[in-house]
Structures are given as structure tokens and as C-alpha cells.
Design a protein that fits this description.
This protein is an alpha/beta fold and about 180 residues long. Helices cover about 45% and strands about 20% of the residues. The protein is built from six helices and seven strands. Strands 5-4-3-6-7 form a five-stranded mixed β-sheet, with helices on both faces. About 35% of the residues are buried.
Length: about 180
């Protein structure tokens, strides 16, 4: 019993250490990245062409949200900064969803863990299961180091408006959303 507990504790510490190192590397290498935009319509169309299973295993195409401000967040249940920023995403989805904003999470994780965390958080936006291949997908969208969290924001026309390596500050995200929504929305 003691050996099992030690094994679990060592694994938890190892996972925490890997997450912290990945975030630190992402922030360090991402400092010089163009976080204010620079994306292309081609990148956005590739993302909109993606289809992944949801938590129930049903394929969901991101194209169903075409025409909305789409905020796609790559995350994992073991990623502490991911878990910390997601409650703000829930609030912003509730606030801005009726005005044409859609958050979508792409989990780099096991579906059962995603379902448990989504229930705990009362997630009000889709969580798609990208598995560990989602890191490669995020790299193709500008995440050079493959760190989490990583967020891609598409304007209504499908153009990548901004990417963010590491947590995005709530006030920054609110400002970006405001810039992408027409004043009359």
C-alpha cells in the first residue's frame, strides 16, 4: 500500500514538474512571438476544416461556428495554468455567446478526465478531444514549442486575429473580443 502511494505521489510530482517546465518554456520562447496577430486566413480555414470528437465521442466540425468570433483553447486537465484560466472562459462565453462569440476547448487529454473536469467546472462551451496529437495541431497553428495553454482567436471572417502562448489575461481577452465584435452587436 505504501509503495503504491509513493508511486502515485511520484507520478503526480512528475506530471506537475512537466507541466511547469512546459509552461516556462512556452512563456520563455513565446516572448518574441507575434501575439498581436499575424495569422492568415489560410490558417483559420485549416482550423475551421477540423473535426474532432466531443466528450461523448460525436464528431464535431469547427466549421459549425464559422461566422462567429471563435476562441479555440488547447488545454489539458494536468495543466495548472489551463485550469486556472478556464473559469474566466466560462464567464466570457456566458456574457458574449449571445453576441456571436464561441469558445471551443481542444483537450490534450483522456476523454474520461476531460468529462470529469468539465462537470466539475460546469463547462458551458464544447470540449473536443484532440488527444496528444493536438499538440502537433497547435504547432501547425503557431505554437512553436508545443506548450499549454495555447489559444487561437479567429475573427468572424475566419482570419486568425491573435494567438496566445500561455494564459491569456481576462482584460486582454475582453478587449480582443470587443475589437472583433461590431459595435451594434
Amino acid at each position: 500500500m505504501v509503495a503504491v502511494s509513493r508511486g502515485i505521489a511520484k507520478r503526480a510530482i512528475w506530471l506537475l514538474l512537466v507541466g511547469v517546465l512546459a509552461l516556462a518554456a512556452g512563456i520563455w520562447f513565446g516572448r518574441g512571438a507575434d501575439l498581436g496577430g499575424g495569422g492568415s486566413k489560410a490558417d483559420g480555414q485549416a482550423l475551421l476544416g477540423l473535426s474532432l470528437p466531443d466528450m461523448q465521442g460525436q464528431e464535431q466540425g469547427l466549421a459549425q461556428w464559422k461566422g462567429k468570433v471563435l476562441i479555440v483553447n488547447f488545454w489539458a486537465t494536468w495543466c495548472v495554468p489551463c485550469r486556472e484560466e478556464m473559469p474566466e472562459f466560462v464567464k466570457l462565453q456566458q456574457e458574449f455567446g449571445p453576441r456571436g462569440v464561441q469558445f471551443v476547448g481542444i483537450a490534450v487529454d483522456d476523454p474520461a478526465k476531460v468529462r470529469d473536469f468539465a462537470a466539475e467546472l460546469k463547462l458551458n462551451y464544447p470540449a473536443l478531444i484532440g488527444g496528444y496529437g493536438a499538440i502537433e495541431l497547435s504547432k501547425s497553428l503557431g505554437n512553436r514549442v508545443g506548450a499549454l495553454p495555447y489559444t487561437v482567436i479567429l475573427a468572424r471572417d475566419g482570419t486568425v486575429s491573435r494567438t496566445q502562448l500561455g494564459p491569456i489575461k481576462p482584460n486582454d481577452l475582453r478587449s480582443i473580443i470587443g475589437q472583433l465584435l461590431p459595435n451594434n452587436d
